[in-house]
Structure formats: C-alpha cells, structure tokens
Amino acid sequence: MSTSTESTTPGTGPAPKRDRTHYLYIAVIIAVVLGVAVGIVAPDFAKSLKPIGSSFVDLIKMMISPIIFCTIVLGIGAVKQAAKVGKVGAIALGYFLTMSTAALGIGLIVGNIVQPGSGLVLPDEPYEVTESEGLDLIPDTLVSPLVGTSVLQTLFVALLVGFAVQALGTKGEPILRGIGYFQKLVFKILTMILWLAPIGAFGAIAAVVGETGWAAVGALLQIMLGFYLTCALFVFGILGLVLRLGAGINIFTLLKYLGREFLLIVSTSSSESALPRLIAKMEHLGVSRPVVGITVPTGYSFNLDGTAIYLTMASLFIATAQGSPLALGEQISLLVFMIVASKGAAGVTGAGLATLAAGLQSHRPDLVDGVGLIVGIDRFMSEARAVTNFAGNAVATVLIGHWVGEFDRAKADRVFAGQDPFDEATMVDDDHDPADSAPPSLTKDTAGSQT
Prior knowledge:
By secondary structure, the protein is mainly alpha-helical. Helix content is 67%, strand content 0%. The chain is built from 18 helices and no strands.
C-alpha cells in the first residue's frame, strides 16, 4: 500500500488521493463508543451480540494459513536476496534479528510487570487439549495445511517450500514471483475483511462490557497505555542508546529530520506509506544508495519492532483477561514462534492482527476468540506500531551505513544543521514495494548519486 506524497502546491504535481482507511478509523472509534454504551445500558442485550465479534474473529482465522505461508516463503527469499550482497546483507539481517528479538523481549518484560488485563476475567467455555494437539507437526499432504487449522503445520510446509525454491536457484524465481502475487491477493482479501472491523468491534466490545461492566474499559485503556509507553521506551531508550553508541547521533535529531514522514504514517496507520520518502531521505542524509537499497526494503519485512512489541503484549493481555495466564515456558515458546512468523510480513494494516491470531492458534487455541477484544483497540495502537517500525528502520539504515563505511557524516551534519535541506520538489513517489525491491549491487556506479 503506497500513498502519494507529492507536494500539493500549484505547479508541483497533482494532489494526493485521500486515504479511505481514514473513514474506517473513524467508524471503529464510533463502534467502540457505541459498544461500550450498549454494554453499560443494556448488558443482557449486549451479551447476545457476542457471535458478531466471534464471526469477525473467524474471518481473521480464515486468513491465517495463507498469510503465514506467503510471508515465510517470501521471507526466506528476502534472506537469500540479502545474502547475495555479502557484508551489508549479513550485518543487516543480524541486526534485524537482534533488535526484533529485543523488542519481543521488552514486550514480554513490560507485559509481565504491568499485567494488562488483570482484574478482567472473561467468562469462557472450558477448553480441553487433545493429546496430539500442538505436537502433530507433519501434515497429511503438502497442501493440506493451507486448508487446515494447524499453524505449525503451515509453518513447517512454508519452510520446506521456501528452502526448496531457493535451492532451485534462478529456476525458482518465477515461483517466488507467483507467491508474491498470491500474497497481494491475500492481503487484498484481508483489507476487505478489515472493513467489517467496526461491526466486529461493536459486537465484541458490547459483549465484554455487558459481562464485566466498566472493568473492560479500564483494561483496554491499560493495555493501550502500556503499549504506548513500551514503544516510547524502546525508541528513545533502546534505539536511542544504540544509535548514540553506534554512530554518535542523537535519536531526537534523526526523528526531527523525519518529522513529515511520521505525520504521514500517523495519517495512514502504515509505515509502508512512507517507504519511498525514507529511501530518498536516507540517501540525502549521506547513506550510500546501495546500502539504503539493501537495508530499507529488507527492514520493512524483517525489522518490525513495533509489531513485535504489539504481538507479545497483546498475547499476554488476552491470556490474562480470559483467566488463563501464559506460563513462562509458553511465553518463551510463543516468543520464538512470533520471531519466525513475523518475518517477511509486509507493513500492511491488519497483518499484525492476523499474526497475533496465528500465534495464539498455534500455542493456545482456547485464547483465539480473545482477539475479538483486541479488534476494537487495534486501530488505536496501529499508529504507534507503525511509527516504531519506521523509527527502527531509519536507525538501522544509519547504523549499518556507518558500520560499513558508507555514511557521509559531514553531509549528515550539514543536513541536521539545516544547511542542506531536503528538496521536497524533487521527491518522486516511485511506488516502491518491499516485495518487489531487489537489493542493488555494492559496486560503485552512476546509481550512487544522491537524490
């Protein structure tokens, strides 16, 4: 999903199209408010609306297997692609894995300290785990996971297919392109489903408030506030420290330089919308084009720090709210799954919700229905999620450029000081797509000129 960022001043280009998801955001807010009101005023009627929220969750669950399959196979393709460029690709992948793991870890730590959802015990039907559940890794056929409900089997087959396609070399490239097109179809269907989010959120929130009263409202505010604070701690604490020690740059200076991009992200709830501008601005800052061309597109699939924090804290919230807290071993197992499952996921609104459902489906199927509670506040957290993802990729680009000697520090100082401002008139939205971006060669050529 790409949003035009061309200037709207006369003579500089056409005005950008209005993002229709703006209306979806407003509709979700209205639905949440109405759901709370109905739950308080008519609790018995509100409880009867629970199937509405459950039906929306079922639609999300329907998309789990194809999303996991596509993102894992294409994620393996991105690893292979980055590996071709040697040192930069290896450093980038190592850094992305480390920071995403740190984000998941900090989400678990803060989640266990804050314990979001505590005091809110949702009535739920008892769930019995069958003897083989969670252990049946090998599917009956190669394609059966795509029409089944076992996330672990889907993950297993996706890994096999991904590595098999890579082993085919150039003959496997058409297969990857085909899966890439299929992924676009899957996310298009997911986008269509998300337009039903206001209805699903209304039913889920109304039912929960009808059953628990104001305790549900307080719990939702608690998880939202905890998530915002955790994202801020990660960006200004962890990323800020790494950027200062790794490149000697103040995090506030870098974020100020990217101010317009953050506004664009907040308005669209997706870091994808600012991808072309991040590429242009990182080059203007002094990071060489080859490094930017490798790091930014790969980071958009592998360096989703905000999504990682969201996945862990939301999982803990759902488990606690349903009166079935996750044991430490389950938390660690879920963390490992999220590290794998979130790789290769595009920065598309709603992908985080589907990945959350996939993680719970694979570890604790009894908790999946709790995703309906998150649907009502997912849009409220999507901005912080996207902003954190974007900040993480901006920091990564500067750090990796500095570490491989492809960062012009003198130019960066001039840019930060306002002596070499970014020319908005030269900014052209080329409709970049991480799935379509191939890492360029690190050879010195005419492509190294700055935008």
